[in-house]
């Protein structure tokens, strides 16, 4: 009868041990990128509800609707980037554009935006731009190390 007993924690005899180590190392390298992109999801959710939390949805309904649409789009883009971080360089550019739109939207969409709406959009849009740039930089440095 064959010896089928396993020693716990010892996989050095496994035929695919080098491939498993490489896959685990690649997963750990992209985990930091996914963590940054999860912040994009949170910023998108905040942007979507900001019209009601900052209380400008009544005075500026078009800006609240714009923030709702852009916030949902950011949350979806962030989710896609978080699920598949190695394919998310193009989506980082989309998140950067959406963040830039959040920054300029109070002046483009509304005639006289209030201070709360302006601060909310500028801070959220700036944070999204920063997150997209950081995630893109992390992916670029990871790709340089891989080649």
TrEMBL record:
The chain crosses the membrane at residues 33-52, 64-84, 91-110, 122-141. Pfam families: SPW. The keyword Membrane applies. Coiled coil: none annotated. Keywords: Membrane, Transmembrane, Transmembrane helix. The keyword Transmembrane helix applies. Residues 39-133 form the SPW repeat-containing integral membrane domain. This is SPW repeat protein.
